[in-house]
Structure prediction request, 220 residues.
Amino acid sequence: MKDIVFALPKGRLADKTMELLAQIGITCPEMEENTRKLIFRNKELGYRFFLAKPSDVPTYVEYGAADIGVVGRDTIIEEDRRLYEVMDLGMGRCRMCVCGPESAREKLKHNELIRVATKYPHIAKDYFYNVKQQTVEIIKLNGSIELAPLVGLSEVIVDIVETGTTLKENGLMVLEEVCDISARVVVNQVSMKMENERITNILSGIREVLAKEQAIKNEQ
Ligand code: PRP
Prediction:
């Protein structure tokens, strides 16, 4: 039997996904050992897991290096890969927003030619060009995006807002909302056909666990 391979994004989301999978009997003791290993296997159950940079997860899944992946919707939209997005895990909820200082609000309104710094050039481009039909200059950055308007690199940013703390501590605010983000399960298109039964079982197991968790939350 071929192993079903999972690509997980390094960090908190990977831990949370493993907790979720454990509830449907999918475990990987090897992963709990503190090593620098990148691939982990549960030979008895026929699963393999690897940890990748979040933005690379859709690539591994598109090419079939992984059958199933877990990744934020931000990355799915930005990477625009051929894969099936099959489930919202409801974890890692946040918003993709246009943010900046209060002074940028007027510039956004009047369709001025502004500069937009972002780690997500495709999302920013789609929002400004297609949704707002506003011509802007998009500047790609790789992190600490909030810095850009503070040092005069751009008027606004398109970035993820979770608690809003980073914005607040830097005198910035949400000016417009682009979309909601949360962690999604993605599946390789060929695997979905070839391993349909096993993958469908995994997905329905996860769905049941999520539904139970939701029911408990609703009771509280
Ligand atoms: C993300 C995002 C914001 C921050 C938002 O950055 O880009 O900067 O978190 O979170 P908050 O609303 O709870 O403050 P991340 O920490 O992933 O690092 P980065 O700046 O290197 O992208």
In short: The mean pLDDT is 96.
